[in-house]
Amino acid sequence: TRGQRCPTQRRTTMADNADSAPAPAGDAPTRGRGGGRGRGRGRGKPRKEEMIDGNEPSNPTPAVAASGSAPPKIKEMLKNVLQSSGPILQAKLNMTWRRVHPEVALEYKTWGFERLKSFLDSMPDVVELKKEPGERDWTIYLVGSAATKAQGGGAAG
């Protein structure tokens, strides 16, 4: 019948294959849980090009400076975004930015910031960040706007 094995037929095992040696312990499996399936390299692991003879570099250099400064043009563009949309959640900033300024990407990493929040924190003259009760994300307010004054002013940190 279809799908059944013949009783004389048996499955081959690794022990049956005398010429096949077990893989060394350091080799990663080619199949199985995440092996070669695009799951990334994990947190904190260096890229292949950063490796030195298969080992992690002894003195890794940061890809981005610890702090930076936003170009004045970008500050003005951010003001325009917040004037047109009002206060917005930090998670929605990129989408709102692209709607208002489709010709210029919000590339805060190229301006020396690792995170969007640190980029926004560097502009206390333009934006204020506050965490609203019950919200998980920061809300971005334009400094001096009516919404900021109604919230009581002052920047959150």
Which overall shape is indicated by the principal axes computed on the Cα atoms?
A: elongated
List SSEs in N-to-C order: HEHHEEH
The helix fraction, in percent, is 10-25%
pLDDT average, as an integer? 74
Cα-to-Cα separation, first versus last residue: 71 Å
Total helical segments = 4
pLDDT under 50 segments (min length 5)?
Answer: 60-66
**DSSP strand (E) fraction?**
5-15%
Described by strand count, sense and barrel closure, the largest sheet is: 3 strands, antiparallel
Task: Report the strand count.
Answer: 3
> Helix/strand-derived class?
alpha+beta
Strand order across the biggest sheet? Answer: 1-3-2
Radius of gyration: 27 Å
Topology:
Layout: H1 72-85, E1 88-89, H2 93-100, H3 116-121, E2 127-131, E3 138-142, H4 146-151
Antiparallel strand pairs: 1-3, 2-3
Structural features, described:
There is one protein chain. The chain contains 4 helices and 3 strands. The chain starts with 71 loop residues before the first helix and ends in a 6-residue tail after the last helix. A 3-stranded antiparallel beta sheet has the order 1-3-2. The model is unreliable at 60-66 (pLDDT under 50). The protein is an alpha+beta fold.
